[in-house]
Design brief:
- The chain is an alpha/beta fold and 241 residues long.
- The chain contains eight helices and nine strands.
- The protein has one domain: TIM Barrel (Alpha-Beta Barrel), CATH 3.20.20.
- The strands form two sheets. The chain has a six-stranded parallel sheet. A three-stranded parallel sheet has the order 1-2-4, with helices on one face.
- Strand 1, helix 1 and strand 2 form a beta-alpha-beta unit.
- The longest helix is centred in the N-terminal third of the chain and has 16 residues.
């Protein structure tokens, strides 16, 4: 099916650091559709205790209400599904923590928050959480591994390989490829592409700084891996969509 599938965006309004209003959410969805996206997953952050972005019943209910309000008014020509971006905090490793509730709707995949440009809450448990998701019969997708290159000090070149060994697919950000994520992210994104470690491209779109679009990043990825491989990273085929 023609069109892009964006597995990573922050278009649900008023629930994290993405869209701030329903009007902004609808503008972002229109931007995505007009640049070739046919299906977009809205993936709000779950990062307890950071900024109260937790997985409480109250917060998840609010996310679902805001998502429903947005989806009802979504422009024609784009499908919107709900997912989450999960930071690998220690509580996520508990046996009674329900991973299934975090999957990308209609799939067997769970989006994990990856490294940031500085040490982050989930760094110590990323590999273990990826293995736990696998143990539940689901497939983890690790977001923006290229950001690890922005850390000060010696770069950990084995990070991406370890996450792949733990069973994760790797998703590079469009803003990582374009360099909008900061110095180093674009170089690392291209290295990971060239070494065959990247499975997917997501917009990680939040708004003006990181647009909700995949077209430019697909073209840039094609310069490294070729048109066919770059298209596979954005057309939904990896997820069976």
């Amino acid at each position: 099916m023609a069109g892009y599938v964006d597995i990573h965006s922050h278009v649900v309004f008023g629930v994290d650091d993405g869209s701030r209003s329903l009007d902004e959410s609808l503008r972002l969805l229109t931007e995505a559709r007009d640049t070739g996206t046919r299906l977009i997953f809205a993936t709000p952050h779950v990062v307890p205790p950071y900024l109260n972005w937790n997985a409480s019943q109250e917060r998840l209910a609010r996310i679902r209400r805001h998502f429903a309000a947005m989806a009802e008014l979504a422009p024609a020509g784009i499908e919107v599904r709900l997912g989450f971006e999960i930071t690998a905090r220690p509580q996520r490793l508990r046996a009674n923590d329900d991973i299934d509730r975090f999957r990308l709707a209609g799939t067997e995949f769970v989006l994990m928050d990856g490294p940031q440009s500085v040490p982050w809450h989930g760094d110590s448990t990323m590999e273990r959480y990826a293995r736990r998701i696998r143990a539940e019969g689901l497939t983890p997708i690790l977001a923006h591994p290229e950001r690890r290159a922005c850390w000060r000090g010696e770069h950990d070149y084995g990070f991406a390989e370890r996450m792949k060994a733990a069973g994760a697919l790797l998703q590079v950000d469009a803003s990582g490829l374009t360099g909008a994520d900061g110095p180093g992210s674009d170089v690392e994104a291209r290295r990971l592409l060239a070494e065959g470690l990247i499975d997917l491209i997501g917009s990680d779109g939040h708004g003006a700084k990181s647009p909700v679009r995949l077209d430019v990043a697909r073209t840039m990825a094609a310069e490294v891996v070729g048109d066919a491989a770059a298209t596979r990273m954005v057309d939904g085929s990896v997820l069976g969509l």
